[in-house]
Here is the input.
Amino acid sequence: MRKKKNIVLENVLVEDYAAEGKSLARVDGKVIFIEEAVPGDIVDIRLTKNKKDWGEGRPISYRQYAASRVAPFCEHFSVCGGCQWQMLPYAKQLQYKQKQVSDNLQRIGKLSLPPFEPILGAYPETRYRNKIEYTFSNKKFLLREELHNADISASQNVAGFHARGVFDKVVDIRECHLQAEPTNRIRLAIKQYALDQDCSFYDIKEHAGCLRTVQLRICRSGEIMVNIVFGREQEEKREGLLDHIRNKFPEISTLLYTINGKRNDSLHDLSPIIYSGKGYAIETLEDFRFKIGPKSFFQTNTAQAEKLYQVTRDFAELKGYETVYDLYCGAGSIGIFLSRNAAKIIGVEMIGEAIEDARENALMNGIDHAHFFHGDVTDICTDDFFAANGRPDTIITDPPRAGMHEKLVRKILDMQAPTIVYVSCNPATQARDLSLLNDRYAVTRVRPVDMFPHTLHIENVVQLKLREPAGL
Here is the structure.
């Protein structure tokens, strides 16, 4: 295959799922990774990368669709980038996600694996997110059919999501299927009020404008928390908008606002201000209750978080006498969920506000044998700390997508807890970490849990057991 620009490959059969939402084909012995296609499609592909042994590309036309395809249910599918797999039946999505986990653990981790326990699918498959963030922008992302229409301008005030791969333009969303109502009605009401009152929408390139983003949390408890983020303070317009939303949606239990004049959307170093309500929401898992503030981390799919934690509790195999170390404990949700089966919970987390949440959540649930510590595990878990709190019988680790730092892996190897349960949102980095643990720990159980239907993301839970010393 020639290495030149603008190469188009015709009549290519998409053969299999690869990973990260891509499928693959083989052309003249070369592997081609393809976005926006599924196994069974026959497509013409324009290459975007052309290396010696592999290439990447996108379909420019579909000669034949795979028989397994279904019609996407969202009018914004393939534009906003939120749900990449709506064209696949959910059963097929689960099949590919389980394959992704298996491939990662075997190819990256090179591990000896037990038979997988069946992937836990999600129900419901839509409107499952408890938290969502919409962006307000003065630049509309134009669809292909709109680009050459002189009556349609990109200079429009819109509310929705950033277009896939485009940082400065936003897809104007009419209906999002990721979160239950009143999510769409609240977003559209904010947008309409701002248009009527001439409140400027944010320009991310110029870092100017008033209305910036809104975060909505809709809890299983029935509570709704809304945080409207402004790019600058305009008190009269801000209060007018907040009053309008509070009056129009009395079901909102907490309404906050945040002034964010920074060049990024992160709120971790900002202080949301309570406009009405108590300033937080209550979410439930089984009969546990959790206080969630506007900056708290909590699993985004409540129903599946409950299943994920049930798998974690099952894999921990607690008898009631164990000391459990909950690493990357966040707001303490996993440790608290396991607490009735353990003698002691020790949670460790780098983010101080999350530790405060964890302590409040333990108190709210009447749990007095859970103790939470702020700092780096590698600094905290010293011999003196073990003497004061006990060595772990079981370790739960739930790191971010980047996985565990190598220093933490070494620290876990030193701890030599009999059982580890590793919860991961990224099977690739999980596989890397499991490979580092492999000398002393054997993988004994594996179960993927789907938290995000119609996306390429998958969580995976692995149980590890300490190997017997050689010669025994």
Q: What stands out?
A: The first helix runs from residue 90 to 107.
